[in-house]
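Changelog note: in this version the structure field was regenerated for every chain. One regenerated record is shown below for reference.
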Amino acid sequence: VLAFNLTLQGRHDEAIETMRRAVSLDPNVAKAHYHLALNLALAGGGHLQDVEQELARAEEVGIVKILESDTGNIGAVYEIVLIGYIEARDAQGVERVLSRLAVWEKEKQAQWDRIAELMRTGEWALLDRAVQGGK
């Protein structure tokens, strides 16, 4: 709760540090990794790989029973990371995140397939326009 309060105040570095401290207290708590990933995503900037790593760690540790809203949020966090990788023209990052979105947001598979196709054919400008429209 403290980390999210700090995030709402625009104090992203403090929020991230608070969540890193929470994770360090017990690295086997999946929800702590999930919340760290969420705070990293909300901070924006150069945290894309950190977000991916924390979400992967949350799954690894065992995010078995989470709230339905958390499931939707995980997909939303991956979408934020996807946009960042599209803007950075990072094809490997896009592919990694699309594979995770295929798990968390199966109902959007046609959209993920279309993004993959556009990326593979070098249609970055079209992807940029789609991303800008989604912001």
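Spot check on this record: The radius of gyration is 15 Å. Residues 40 and 51 are 6 Å apart (CA to CA).
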